UniProtKB/TrEMBL annotation:
<dbReference type="Pfam" id="PF13407">
    <property type="entry name" value="Peripla_BP_4"/>
</dbReference>
<protein>
    <recommendedName>
        <fullName>Periplasmic binding protein domain-containing protein</fullName>
    </recommendedName>
</protein>
<dbReference type="GO" id="GO:0030246">
    <property type="term" value="F:carbohydrate binding"/>
</dbReference>
<dbReference type="InterPro" id="IPR028082">
    <property type="entry name" value="Peripla_BP_I"/>
</dbReference>
<feature type="domain" description="Periplasmic binding protein">
    <location>
        <begin position="46"/>
        <end position="302"/>
    </location>
</feature>
<dbReference type="GO" id="GO:0030313">
    <property type="term" value="C:cell envelope"/>
</dbReference>
<keyword id="KW-0732">Signal</keyword>
<dbReference type="InterPro" id="IPR025997">
    <property type="entry name" value="SBP_2_dom"/>
</dbReference>
<feature type="signal peptide">
    <location>
        <begin position="1"/>
        <end position="26"/>
    </location>
</feature>
<keyword id="KW-0614">Plasmid</keyword>
<comment type="similarity">
    <text>Belongs to the bacterial solute-binding protein 2 family.</text>
</comment>
Length: 342
């Protein structure tokens, strides 16, 4: 009899504990906003069309996006057009048909995605454009102010080759694909700086189309035509590996100042500053952009604005890196972003 009573009491206690646990699971702690925050994000869908996967920028952003999506219970779907603008537009249209809550675009061409952005917003999808944008605004732009980038890079060349520097003012501009804002808008920013410095002579401006081999060939020709060249303004580290190779082959590393830019990846940026390929580098800080990208996704999913009704931008603060100011934290690795990014 006594044993039966003990078992009954134990069962009652177990039932009470189970009840408490059930109640706890049913009603998570709410500080007044947290419950709504998690509910708004769980189960949502985000589409991402980069210009291509497989290089530091897009892999870094994606690492941050996937980390946050996994933590908050939503899905990020990627469609990779592999540097093909037409394939990118088709990929974006395919995602629009699937009706994600947010569509992230990384347009290779300023004009080609205009109708795609408009179509997505007309379909009720909020649009984020990352680091490159079409002429048409989406809901959010996260990325570089390319006019500011052009101005800062041009000023670095002026400081190295202009009045009071000891240089002769002769410089070259190795462009990328001219349809991208990186080239078009940065080019305007750079020209506006050069116009203020009559001692600067731009002896060559050529487009290497983001191709390192093409940049190497172009630079080699420029150096043969202008053996006394003082400086080169490049626009992307992936391309300017070729520019640096041509300078090295010509044996003029001590004569020609090279400034370039990129996302600040360790191997693409800091290693090339350390080994003397690049004299100066402007980083648009992919880890910071991944954090801004995730913030934009969270804001849109929580507030659910009518597409196009309240556009805003998160321009990236630029980091200037040289051999003299470089530290262990100046650059990042993909392994770090996969572990903690976003």
């Amino acid at each position: 009899m006594k044993t039966r009573k003990i078992l009954a009491a134990a069962a009652a206690v177990a039932t009470a504990i189970a009840g408490l646990a059930t109640a706890s699971l049913a009603e998570p702690f709410d500080d007044g906003q947290s419950k709504t925050y998690y509910e708004k994000l769980t189960g949502k869908k985000v589409g991402f069309v980069p210009l291509s996967m497989g290089f530091d920028l897009t892999e870094g952003w994606n690492a941050g996006l996937q980390n946050q999506a996994e933590a908050l219970g939503y899905e990020v779907t990627i469609r990779d057009p592999n540097w093909n603008t037409e394939a990118g537009v088709q990929a974006a249209n395919g995602l629009i048909a699937e009706q994600p809550d947010v569509l992230i675009l990384h347009p290779l061409d300023m004009q080609a995605y205009n109708r795609t952005v408009q179509k997505a917003m007309a379909s009720g999808i909020n649009v984020i454009q990352v680091n490159l944008k079409s002429v048409t605004n989406g809901d959010v732009y996260v990325g570089t102010d390319w006019y500011e980038m052009g101005q800062k890079q041009a000023q670095a060349v002026v400081d190295a080759c202009g009045e009071g520097s000891g240089g002769n003012g002769k410089i070259a501009f190795v462009q990328g694909m001219l349809a991208t804002p990186t080239a078009t808008i940065s080019g305007q920013g750079a020209q506006d700086v050069f116009d203020q410095h009559p001692e600067i002579e731009v002896v060559a401006t050529q487009a290497a189309d983001w191709d390192a081999s093409k940049a190497q060939a172009i630079t080699s020709t420029i150096l043969k035509q202008h053996p006394d060249l003082c400086g080169i303004l490049g626009l992307w580290d992936g391309q300017d590996i070729g520019t640096a190779a041509a300078i090295r082959e010509a044996g003029v590393q001590d004569q020609v100042f090279l400034v370039t830019s990129g996302g600040g990846n360790q191997s693409a940026a800091c290693d090339n500053i350390e080994n003397g390929n690049f004299d100066a580098y402007y980083s648009y800080d992919v880890p910071g952009q991944a954090r801004d990208l995730n913030s934009a996704v969270k804001i849109l999913l929580q507030t659910d604005p009518e597409p196009g009704s309240a556009p805003f931008a998160l321009y990236t603060p630029l980091k200037y890196i040289t051999k003299e100011n470089m530290t262990a934290s100046s650059c990042w690795t993909l392994d770090e972003l996969k572990a903690n990014g976003g």
